């Protein structure tokens, strides 16, 4: 159970996306005609991507602000922070959806409103789940995710049978997501039963956190964009196709790439278990030694043990991810034999699965860097991942479809190398880094009290 719920906490957003898109694709094919099924699937994919990219820059700084409020023993700020984050993240996702569906794709007003509603709901669900995960309400998040998704799918099937209209199906699916959101909000508020004194003040605080934690914000945005980067590059290339409704996609790449990315889920689960046990306990012991005024020799020995612990754990996680990737590589031809994939899509799934090994290293290092408050290095890692993915994906297009997926593999590999170097540089000067961070927090608290 710990590993399963760990997968949710660490990869809830991505699990929701993959779970939703996978079921949408499967159910729509058997309930409506192929063109309607394709439009419904693409509305969902576009909305998930928009919500992910549009809200990423807000969620991480807002979560850090929530963490700081608890650190300062100000839990009464939690409800206002949640709803302020709803407003800011939801508005960002809605604005991006309006641009994409209304301007870029030039869709009818019904589809524009559907895309805006869908994207906003997903962004708000991710906000609620992030805050709920911070208080370890994992089972509630799990139940809300899958209950809302299943309700939405049933509603979408009924809407498809009754109307045969893609945007009506998407709105029905969004209604299920609204159920998820409605279930998550009381879970968080039950742990923080405080009145919201000033919503506008909380919104201003969330907006200020974007500049205060600019490296976290920009890094999170680049990290979310990096996940979709290779897909967007292929969509916008000559290999992308525009269907009769004006949606851009690349079926030859999209489906096997999504399936290959599922290889990350077991690694996510092991990662959160590692974080909650090995890393957190090791850092806690090191912090306790600092608070007990340990000698310099003791601190250096403790830092060395912690560095060795992180390295050994990283090797174990990567080894497990390699085995998972091998399993996915072996499963790809079987998926083609079962007519789940085309034979030309097999290599895409296999290459993506191999790239998941390097992607996990990026995620592992990012977790360590965020926990140690190494914001600039975190931003650097995400930037390297994004830029390398875009450059490699675009540069390899001229070599044809056989190279699909290699851009993601190259981008994740470059990101992994930068991430490993960055993490090692922080761990090599761990004591100095912790003292500098503590001094900065103390100065921030004293400054806020004076003001």
TrEMBL record:
Keywords, sorted A to Z: Membrane, Transmembrane, Transmembrane helix
Pfam families: PelG
Ribosomal protein is among the record's keywords: no
InterPro entries: PelG
Presence of keyword Transmembrane: yes
Domain of life the protein comes from: Bacteria
Protein name (database record): Exopolysaccharide Pel transporter PelG
Residue ranges of the TM segments: 42-60, 81-103, 109-128, 140-161, 167-192, 213-238, 258-275, 314-336, 348-372, 377-397, 403-427
């Amino acid at each position: 159970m710990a590993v399963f719920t760990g997968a949710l906490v660490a990869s809830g957003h991505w699990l929701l996306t993959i779970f939703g898109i996978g079921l949408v694709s499967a159910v729509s094919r058997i309930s409506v005609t192929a063109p309607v099924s394709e439009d419904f699937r693409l509305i969902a994919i576009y909305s998930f991507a928009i919500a992910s990219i549009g809200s990423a820059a807000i969620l991480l700084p807002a979560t850090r602000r929530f963490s700081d409020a608890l650190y300062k023993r100000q839990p009464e700020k939690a409800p206002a922070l949640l709803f302020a984050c709803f407003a800011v993240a939801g508005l960002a996702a809605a604005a991006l959806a309006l641009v994409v569906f209304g301007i870029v794709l030039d869709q009818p007003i019904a589809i524009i409103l559907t895309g805006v509603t869908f994207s906003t709901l997903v962004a708000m669900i991710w906000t609620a789940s992030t805050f709920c995960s911070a208080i370890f309400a994992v089972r509630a998040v799990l139940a809300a995710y899958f209950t809302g998704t299943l309700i939405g799918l049933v509603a979408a099937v009924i809407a498809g049978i009754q109307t045969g209209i893609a945007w009506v199906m998407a709105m029905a699916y969004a209604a299920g997501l609204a159920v998820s959101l409605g279930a998550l909000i009381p879970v968080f508020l039950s742990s923080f039963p405080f009145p919201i004194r000033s919503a506008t003040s909380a919104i201003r605080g969330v907006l200020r956190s974007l500049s205060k934690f600019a490296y976290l914000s920009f890094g999170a945005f680049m990290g979310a964009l990096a996940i979709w980067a290779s897909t967007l590059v292929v969509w916008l290339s000559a290999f992308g196709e525009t269907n009769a409704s004006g949606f851009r996609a690349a079926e030859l790449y999209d489906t096997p790439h999504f399936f290959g990315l599922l290889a990350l889920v077991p690694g996510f689960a092991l990662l959160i278990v590692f974080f909650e046990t090995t890393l957190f306990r090791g850092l806690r012991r090191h912090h306790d030694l600092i608070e007990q005024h340990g000698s310099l020799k003791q601190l250096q020995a403790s830092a060395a043990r912690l560095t060795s612990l992180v390295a050994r754990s990283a090797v174990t996680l990567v080894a497990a991810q390699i085995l998972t990737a091998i399993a996915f590589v072996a499963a790809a031809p079987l998926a083609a034999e079962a007519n789940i994939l085309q034979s030309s899509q097999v290599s895409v799934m296999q290459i993506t699965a191999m790239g998941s090994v390097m992607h996990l290293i990026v995620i592992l290092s990012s977790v360590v860097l965020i926990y140690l408050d190494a914001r600039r290095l975190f931003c650097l890692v995400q930037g390297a991942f994004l830029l390398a993915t875009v450059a490699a994906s675009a540069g390899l297009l001229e070599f044809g479809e056989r190279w699909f997926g290699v851009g993601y593999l190259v981008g994740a590999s470059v990101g992994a190398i930068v991430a490993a170097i960055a993490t090692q540089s922080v761990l090599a000067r761990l004591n100095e880094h912790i003292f500098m961070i503590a001094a900065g927090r103390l100065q921030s608290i004293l400054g806020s009290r004076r003001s």
